[in-house]
Design a protein that fits this description.
The complex is a heterodimer of chains A (about 290) and B (about 475). Chain A is an alpha/beta fold and about 290 residues long. In chain A, about 25% of the residues lie in helices and about 15% in strands. Chain A contains nine helices and seven strands. In chain A, the strands form two sheets. Chain A has a five-stranded parallel beta sheet, sandwiched between helices. In chain A, α1 packs across α6. Chain A starts with a strand and ends in a 16-residue tail after the last helix. Chain B is an alpha+beta fold and about 475 residues long. Chain B has a four-stranded mixed beta sheet. In chain B, strands 1-2-3 form a three-stranded antiparallel beta sheet, with helices on one face. In chain B, β9 and β10 form a beta hairpin. Chain B starts with a strand and ends with a strand. The relative contact order of chain B is 0.19. Classes of the chains: A alpha/beta (about 290), B alpha+beta (about 475). At the A-B interface, α1, α5 and α7 of A face α1, α4, α5 and α6 of B. The structure holds iron/sulfur cluster (3 copies).
């Protein structure tokens, strides 16, 4: 008898990295995954969209009007709806385009104008959105891409009901770099363009690192290859609140006697602090262009 | 009477696309390969600090993220006027080859092979059918993919969207124990892949017997001394007859390749300025036709059986898949070669104070799907003012449209207007190219006059000044 749980992978606008991460996780643990039957995934098979599915996994963000209808439909069809990856959870990096006026982007890029109607093309919405703006999500697995071990945990949860709780610790907690007692920033430095002391906390070296506000679960994988955290797992707090917390703690770390703080080096705070989450901010950003 | 047939979605390719065929009295009047997604990375890069670009651009594509990362970093090398140490280059290559392995295996065995193995089953069960009917083949393929994944994780922290390298630097050098472990796995993977190829060889030969020639120009990096996936900055353009139409250095790319918009797709249509019709192919087939030699034992052996006996240049799209196999063998050989030498461990993490030396940086690389160009312009502080990305897939979309017309016409003359047969033939033909559509939709307009300035006088970077009309 077939008791497998059915699975549909519903793609919105993403990069297929989430699906690829799923395949990578599959390899390590096929015993677990063999309890599931994929009945829909345009990337992996030609199957028609099902009427009902046990688990619907949505990847990517909402970029077109038609994405909203798809999402509502998939929500209805799925017993459990999972948002997989930071695009689905928060909008992801493409959310940065919300700082610009989409109509002028389109006019600028596509001349002669794209004849959307003549060729029945999907129409863009003004801002990239996460899927949470439109439907209730049962489970959110963030990360860009979502870490393998979280994907495995997700499937263990779906199969055996094992509790699925995202870590409530920050990336700093898993960070192997050395921190000092006093935690003072004497200089603001740009990553990779200015020398820093090896094996020391990026933030204390003056390189902005979002580790303190970012939820771990990724095993601090970027820091382990000497890259500062850019916050892809999303924040431990409400997004805008986290950003304020980050800025206030960084400013309190700055050594008052230091004259080396060059403000030009941090021209693009928005693009840093909201790298993966801008589409989910409640702030009204002024659009350029 | 004119009639429209819409095939939507095209499955087992990366991203969202549909095909619209316009028929008139049983003749194919036109075909549109329509990319129905939009991501806009060229625009969202503007105003970001240049050193963040290599961390942002991998998200263009979850299948070939290492290529975007590396093309970006090559552009940064130029902006900061750096020539990386030999070992930085070797480590970058290692990352690149692992990326090729990860991507090519996905395409060949998970997206494409089901076309051959399940040609009679409807709907094609794809990867899900593979798991059920060919579990040990799937296991072996995923095993080698796991090896690629491990290299990417060890070097770049993550198999998808790695962050491994920055202007002039490699951020996370290899440790001795990692080298030996990976080296041993490389030898195993080579053997395992050879046996995999043996099992599917006959199936492949069958398909090739029915392949149809579709002539076009070809564009790729060129090198005399190696099969150029990372190294070269020299780009060759050949015709369907194999004549060298032109060659140019990467920073002259705008002189040769231009882009125009079409009104039916979110992807633009690049074209060659120098030819009448402008169509060309990029990717494995173009690389092989232009370089015609692999410089690696395993792939040479394979090429003798499958490629050298076909008149060159090969204009049959089915051969994309064959060259892909040869390329997998090539990158496996290269990975083993790099890991076999202890010299890869001799790495000094050389940190410097970097200021932009050039306003423009152009990084060119062969991504799994073909020629990839990242061009950034920065201000004096190193903030991005302008970004132009010419991505492999977008260059293939115009020729894909042409080939859709030709193939559909053949189907209709043989079987009449059979939607089933048309869909099968068209989607299968498109899959040969392994299009990646999330890659294809980032285009921005090139300024009317683009002057590329050079400030860094002690480097042999040659930047011409030219003007252009979009
Ligand atoms: S979350 Fe990251 S990996 Fe997933 S679709 Fe978005 S960009 Fe790709
Ligand atoms: S701020 Fe960054 S570098 Fe410092 S401890 Fe936290 S995660 Fe590590
Ligand atoms: S270290 Fe930060 S940016 Fe890197 S994977 Fe973890 S959360 Fe994402």
């Amino acid at each position: 008898m077939n008791t497998k749980l059915t699975l549909a992978i519903f793609p919105l606008i993403g990069c297929s990295g989430c699906e690829n991460a799923l395949l990578d996780a599959w390899r390590v643990n096929d015993d677990l995954f063999n309890n599931f039957e994929i009945i829909y995934s345009p990337l992996l098979a030609d199957f028609e969209e099902p009427d009902h599915v046990d688990v619907g996994i949505v990847t990517g963000n909402v970029r077109f009007h038609e994405d909203i209808n798809k999402l509502l439909r998939w929500h209805k069809k799925s017993k459990v709806l999972v948002a997989l990856g930071s695009c689905a959870c928060y909008g992801g990096i493409p959310g940065l385009l919300n700082l610009q006026n989409i109509q002028s982007v389109i006019n600028d890029i596509y001349s002669p104008k794209i004849s959307l109607d003549n060729y029945d093309m999907p129409k863009l919405i003004e801002n990239v959105k996460s899927i949470a703006e439109f439907v209730n999500i049962d489970i959110a697995i963030p990360g860009c891409p979502p870490p393998k071990n979280l994907i495995i945990k997700l499937f263990e949860h779906l199969l055996k009901g094992e509790p699925l709780i995202l870590p409530d610790k920050s990336v700093c907690n898993e960070c192997p770099l050395n921190t000092s007692e006093d935690k003072v920033i004497r200089n603001i430095k740009r990553f990779s363009l200015e020398p820093i002391t090896p094996n020391k906390c990026f933030l204390e070296e003056g390189v902005l690192c979002l580790g303190p506000i970012t939820r771990t679960g990724c095993d601090a994988r970027c820091i382990k290859v000497n890259t500062p955290c850019r916050g892809c797992m999303g924040y431990l707090y409400n997004i805008d609140e986290a950003v304020v917390k980050f800025l206030s703690s960084v400013s309190s770390m700055i050594d008052e006697k230091s004259r080396n703080i060059d403000i030009d080096k941090i021209k693009d705070l928005t693009g840093l602090l909201y790298r993966f989450t801008l589409a989910s901010s409640k702030l009204n950003f002024i659009k350029r262009g | 009477m004119s009639k429209k047939l819409v095939f939507h979605p095209i499955t087992r390719i990366e991203g969202h696309a549909k095909v619209t065929l316009v028929l008139n009295d049983g003749n194919v009047e036109n075909a549109y390969f329509q990319v129905t997604e939009f991501r806009g990375f060229e625009r969202l890069l503007v105003n970001r600090p240049i050193e963040e670009a290599p961390l942002i651009v991998p998200r263009i594509c979850g299948l070939c993220s290492p290529s975007h990362h590396l093309a970006s970093v090559k552009a940064l090398d130029e902006i900061f006027g750096l020539t990386p140490q030999e070992n930085v280059i070797r480590l970058r290559e290692l990352l690149h080859y692992a990326g090729f392995l990860h991507s090519h295996l996905l395409h060949l065995f998970i997206l494409y092979l089901p076309d051959i193995l399940f040609s009679d089953i409807k709907p094609n069960p794809g990867f899900i059918g593979m798991i059920k009917s060919y579990p040990s083949l799937v296991k072996d393929v995923l095993e080698i993919r796991g090896f690629a994944q491990q290299i990417l994780e060890v070097l770049g922290g993550s198999s998808i969207h790695p962050s491994a390298t920055m202007a002039g630097l490699f951020l996370n050098p290899l440790k001795p124990s990692q080298r030996t472990e990976l080296r041993d796995k490389a030898s195993k993977s080579i053997k395992l892949f050879n046996t995999i190829v043996e099992t599917i060889k006959d199936k492949l030969s069958e398909v090739l017997e029915n392949s149809i020639s579709f002539p076009s120009n070809f564009v790729s990096l060129h090198s005399k001394s190696d099969y150029p996936l990372y190294h070269s900055d020299e780009i060759h353009v050949i015709s369907s007859k194999g004549e060298l139409l032109t060659y140019f250095q990467h920073n002259d790319y705008l002189e040769v390749i231009r882009e125009k918009t079409v009104s039916w797709s979110y992807a633009k249509a690049p074209y060659l300025k120098l030819t009448n019709d402008g169509y060309y192919r990029v990717g494995p087939l173009a690389r092989f036709n232009i370089n015609s030699k692999f410089h690696s034992e395993n792939s040479e052996d394979f090429a003798k059986q499958f490629l050298y006996n076909v008149p060159s240049p090969i204009c049959m799209s089915e051969y994309y898949n064959i060259v892909r196999i040869a390329e997998i063998k090539y990158v496996l050989d290269k990975i083993l070669e790099i890991l076999s030498s202890e010299r890869i461990l001799e790495y000094t993490y050389l940190q410097r104070d970097l200021k932009p030396m050039n306003s423009d940086g152009i990084g060119v690389i062969e991504a799994p799907r073909g020629l990839l160009i990242h061009h950034y312009r920065v201000d004096d502080y190193g903030y991005i003012k302008y970004a132009n990305l010419i991505v492999a897939t977008v260059q293939n979309t115009p020729i894909i449209e042409k080939e859709i017309i030709a193939r559909s016409q053949q189907v209709i003359s043989k079987y009449g207007v059979s939607e089933d047969k048309l869909y099968n033939t068209i989607s299968r033909m498109i899959r040969n190219y392994d299009p990646c559509l999330s890659c294809a939709t980032h285009t921005s307009n090139i300024p009317f006059t683009l002057e590329i300035h050079i400030k860094n006088e002690n480097k042999v970077l040659f930047y011409p000044t030219f003007s252009s009309t979009p």
